[in-house]
Input
Amino acid sequence: MSVDGAIRRDPESAAAEPFDLIVVGAGIHGAAAALEASRRGLRVLVLDRGDFGGETSWSSLRILHGGLRYLQSFDLVRFRESVKARSWYVRELPSLVEPLVCLMPLYGEGPRRKTLLGPALALNELLRRVWAADSERDLIPGSRLLGATEVRNRFPAVRTTGLQGGALWHDAYVSQPQRVLIEMLRRVVSRGGSALNYVEATGWCLDDGNRILGVEARDLLTDTPITFASRAVLNCAGPWARGLDGANWPAGTESHAPSLAFNLLLDCPLDTASTVAVQPAGGGRTYFLHPMGTRTLAGTYHAAADGPGGTPSEAQISEFIGDLRAAIPGFAPARSDVLRVLAGTLPAKRVGTDDVETRDLWADAGARGGPEGLFTLVGVKYTTAPLAAKRAVKRIVQRCFPTVGGTGDGMTEPAPRPVPAWQEFADLARNHREQARVLVQAIVDNEGVTTVEDLLLRRVDWGLVPSEFDEAARLAGSWFPELVPGEAEPGSD
Output
């Protein structure tokens, strides 16, 4: 057990000891499930064939939505879930979550009418007081309707033709989503678990009674096979889950086909202090644009996909940029302004569409005559991952560990590691080089870092902008020459 939550990559030691549960896939859903299981007293091993959170979770838009849009269709179940999930992040990781001001211009079109948004905002405030945690109610301010003049004052680039006013509400924002996932894994390790990156699950170990005994895997850094023992397995491999489960994939889940989702980091400023939700004139997708100083993070574009792990085409990127220009006449990004494409794979409702699924996929293979102790969770939303994980682990405990108690044992978990933003760190490195080196040393030694990309993209946010990545990589390389370059940076342009 590592009380301080040090993530040490040691496959041999992990293979020498049995675990209660192995979680395959260290995206946000896998990490959340591992944390929930460890808090219930299970000894958990997390495996990922790449780096922790290196796929869809890494490409998150960083907004924790509270479910306001569900009130427009009176979907109170999903609204409640979103509010409670957002509260989880605020309560568990308060140093990583901040309030986010959101502004939606209203033009009297479709659901974007004051007559609909007004009641939705009022209901949002009423129900949030009931379902949100106290910590969230203290952090997240309220919502209201704005007149057209105030919208123009807050957002000078707004499309003014037909502007009737706006909706102002607050969600939550995670400036360093990498830290959210790593802090979850640190807590798992502090409770006796283990987390291994670059270890690919290749199959399940079964006894003669078709019961799970563990996971067959391959250490991708040494290209050697390795076996891990456990009493149960939770497959959280996202779009790759079907390939692992094979014939155990539940019938009737053809709808969980892959779809492409991507965001753009643009090298142009947005003249507002608010995150804005906009549509092109005439209708279309709703995009959120978040100002980041002289840059803007925009998303999300959805498209059909042939398989998992795809990247957007030039035509899709161009269409995205065109939509943004049409939605905000005073905002004119060009293809050359794209600093990074953040792409991931989400489940779609139907094959060959961009209609994103709204329900998590849950499967218990043993209940259908498959291997006992094999479970699958494919989640659909970053925000609601903790609640999806809680439901999944509760079912696993009921099936495989009926004598295990509930959560809330009072065990102390490691506090989040403070990590400065890039500019603050760059200043520290210039003025206090040794302090900067010690800060990076703690991350490299204790968070499973193997490559420069692991460090700069998935432990800290210092490499999101390619030019800053190059500067930070030179600095890290001077201190830690043993860090090897990984594969090509994800989503760089």
